[in-house]
Write a structure and sequence with these properties.
Structural class: alpha/beta
Distance between the termini: 42 Å
Number of strands: 7
Number of helices: 3
Length: about 130
């Protein structure tokens, strides 16, 4: 009985720690969007918002991990991705979750992220990793 109780507390403590880490990581991404000083003449990758925080790329629906994999593949095969643009999809508006996905990928893969908001304004994704 004692081991079951201790095991339950360990699981609860682990869940609390994971929740705390996820919340801390997300705050860095949620620094927001900022004005674009100079826009690139073209973007290396343009993705469209799709349902369930997924994105559309060349007609295919990708989740965050699939998009990361695609960008890593391009980087490894000599077609590096330095700029990513997120735009409104055909049937889906850009949501905060879409922005978080693209901002996280841009941060992790050392790319610049941009978003064309639903009102047509272009913004740069700002991620503060100094916290």
């Amino acid at each position: 009985m004692h081991t079951r109780l201790a095991s339950g507390f360990r699981i609860l403590a682990l869940a609390a720690l994971l929740t705390l880490l996820a919340a801390c990581g997300r705050d860095n991404i949620k620094e927001g969007v900022g004005e674009v000083g100079q826009t690139p003449p073209q973007y290396d990758l343009v993705v469209l918002a799709d349902k369930d925080s997924q994105v559309e790329l060349d007609g295919a629906t990708l989740n965050a991990e699939d998009l990361r994999g695609h960008i890593r593949y391009r980087n490894e095969t000599g077609h590096p991705v330095h700029t990513i643009l997120l735009k409104k999809g055909e049937k889906q508006k850009v949501t905060e979750q879409h922005i978080l996905v693209v901002a996280g990928i841009a941060r992790d893969l050392k790319a610049e992220g941009f978003v064309e908001l639903n009102d047509g304004k272009l913004k740069r994704l700002i991620v503060n990793d100094t916290k």
